[in-house]
Amino acid sequence: MITGFVNVEFEPIIPLSLRRADGIVFTQDAIVDTGFNGWLSLPPDLIAELSLKWKRRGRALLGDGSECIFNIYEATVVWDDTLLTIPIDEADAEPLIGMSLMEGYELKVQVFEGGHVELCKVNRV
Fold this sequence. Notes:
By secondary structure, the protein is mainly beta. The protein has one domain (2-121): Acid Proteases (Cathepsin D, subunit A, domain 1). Helices cover 6% and strands 54% of the residues. It has 1 helix and 10 strands, in the order E-E-E-E-H-E-E-E-E-E-E. The chain has one helix at 44-50; strands at 2-6, 12-19, 25-32, 40-42, 53-61, 67-79, 82-90, 96-97, 105-109, 116-121. Strands 2-3-8-4-7-6 form a 6-stranded mixed barrel. A hairpin with a 5-residue loop joins strand 1 (2-6) and strand 2. The radius of gyration is 15 Å and the shape is globular.
């Protein structure tokens, strides 16, 4: 189970551990974004600090209908006590956890400041 909290802006926040190539693990709070179907987005300064490996360019259609081209990197994250190597979208914004990273989990959010956020693995039948 992964737990977090709701901040003053009513954003669900969970801590995320990212492993640098040299093995050092950093913990970073990230916003759970159910409108983002990717894995994880990080700002350029954090990508540089983690020395992430560039993989390719990506293209996305934004909510306002405009198109965005961005860099995609690769990182290893500790997700529910498991190491996962995932694509990281570069975005000049707060770190966002997308639906692809949460696949197979149930999300529960108490929507008030200081509320509890919980991600639980779902056993599919």
